[in-house]
């Protein structure tokens, strides 16, 4: 803030203590407060006293109008808390114009920027809201808490068609609302709005939020979508890590693993495909995939690798056969005891 202006205000406040009814001093002090961005109730009261004698003072008139808009914005905010919706977009935009005109000359008032951020968010003017939020962060970041009800309203009321999705997402991220970003992207992804780009964005946010070392933290209801996006857009190393860890935590990822293995085979990543298959129970499809890998190793003259896979298949088929034989013997024994 301008140190000269601060000194001027201090001098005027001191002078008006000795001349409390001097209208010229009041006018100068009110205008100085306004230039500082101070639009609190005491400043507005001072403006009203001056305007009674000098009704044509445009600076004070404008400050009064802006203060009225801020008061209306506070009332809208209280209405949102009570379950009421915001005014019509046209009414909001006329208030936005009043605030912007004031801010072109005086941009030091966080309360004006806060009102602009609220109205911009409610009217779908997300670029304006972003600019206001950036300015509040510099002037008085604690006042961003005053956007809480507006954020909650946006979160519970899906934006209409034609919404500037990228800017709205950027706005939520600027406010640190990662859960809202994810919810919005999930809505867009499920509605197939720019599905590929939305899917990539959503996967990035999932991976930022959830740790592959703790896959159990991923909510069960989003796991199918999460693995779909991993297979469609994820880095192979990341996909492999998630599949491995999820399997250890008891997730049903058998089918996702098979899809991923086909992708690996298509890219000649035979070793990685085999390592994933080793973590899976052997069924006909798993056995066929292992044989396919062994055949590909043979074609590439990698005999040792092929033999290792064939030996693995034989060993596990043998163990399964032994288990089956024991199971049959136990059943036969139970029948004998029952008959006896």
Descriptive report:
There is one protein chain. With 340 residues, the protein is mainly α. It has helices spanning 3-18, 23-35, 41-53, 58-81, 89-105, 110-123, 126-139, 148-156, 165-174, 178-190, 195-209, 223-233, 236-248, 254-266, 270-278, 284-299, 303-339. Helix 5 (89-105) packs antiparallel against helix 6 (110-123) and helix 10 (178-190) packs antiparallel against helix 11 (195-209). The longest helix is centred in the C-terminal third of the chain and has 37 residues, at 303-339. The termini are far apart. Residues 318-334 have low confidence and may be disordered.
Instruction: Count helical runs.
Output: 17
- Portion of residues in helices? over 70%
Task: Give the terminus-to-terminus CA distance.
Answer: 100 Å
On the 0 to 100 scale, the average pLDDT is: 83
Class derived from helix and strand content: mainly alpha
Task: Specify Rg, calculated over alpha carbons.
Answer: 34 Å
Please tally the β strands and state the result: 0
Q: Indicate the low-confidence ranges by residue numbers.
A: 318-334
Describe the secondary structure blueprint for this structure:
Blueprint: H1 3-18, H2 23-35, H3 41-53, H4 58-81, H5 89-105, H6 110-123, H7 126-139, H8 148-156, H9 165-174, H10 178-190, H11 195-209, H12 223-233, H13 236-248, H14 254-266, H15 270-278, H16 284-299, H17 303-339
Please provide a brief summary of the model.
The chain has 340 residues and is mostly helical. The chain contains 17 helices and no strands.
Q: Keywords, please?
A:
340 residues, mainly alpha, 76% helix, rod-shaped
């Amino acid at each position: 803030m301008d140190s000269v202006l601060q000194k001027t205000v201090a001098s005027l406040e001191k002078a008006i203590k000795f001349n409390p009814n001097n209208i010229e001093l009041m006018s100068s002090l009110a205008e100085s407060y306004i230039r500082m961005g101070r639009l609190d109730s005491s400043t507005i009261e001072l403006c009203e006293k001056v305007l009674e004698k000098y009704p044509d003072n445009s600076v004070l008139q404008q400050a009064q109008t802006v203060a009225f808009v801020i008061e209306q914005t506070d009332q809208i905010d209280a209405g949102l808390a009570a379950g009421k919706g915001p005014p019509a977009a046209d009414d909001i935009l006329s208030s936005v114009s009043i605030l912007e005109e004031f801010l072109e000359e005086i941009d030091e008032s966080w309360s004006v920027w806060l009102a602009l951020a609220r109205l911009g968010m409610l009217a779908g003017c997300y670029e304006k809201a972003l600019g206001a939020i950036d300015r509040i962060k510099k002037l008085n970041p604690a006042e961003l808490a005053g956007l809480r009800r507006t954020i909650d309203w946006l979160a519970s009321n899906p934006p209409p068609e034609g919404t500037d999705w990228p800017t709205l997402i950027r706005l939520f991220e600027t406010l640190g609302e990662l859960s809202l970003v994810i919810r919005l992207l999930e809505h867009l992804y499920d509605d197939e709005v720019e599905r590929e780009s939305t899917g990539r964005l959503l996967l990035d946010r999932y991976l930022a939020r959830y740790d592959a070392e703790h896959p159990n933290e991923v909510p069960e209801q989003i796991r199918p979508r999460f693995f779909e996006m991993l297979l469609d857009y994820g880095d192979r190393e990341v996909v492999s890590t998630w599949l491995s860890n999820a399997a250890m935590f008891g997730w049903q990822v058998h089918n996702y693993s098979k899809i991923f293995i086909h992708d690996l085979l298509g890219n000649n990543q035979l070793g990685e495909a085999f390592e994933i298959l080793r973590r899976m129970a052997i069924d006909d499809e798993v056995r066929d995939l292992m044989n396919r890998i062994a055949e590909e190793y043979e074609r590439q003259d990698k005999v040792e690798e092929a033999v290792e896979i064939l030996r693995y298949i034989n060993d596990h088929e043998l163990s399964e056969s032994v288990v089956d034989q024991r199971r049959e013997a136990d059943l036969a024994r139970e029948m004998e005891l029952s008959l006896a």
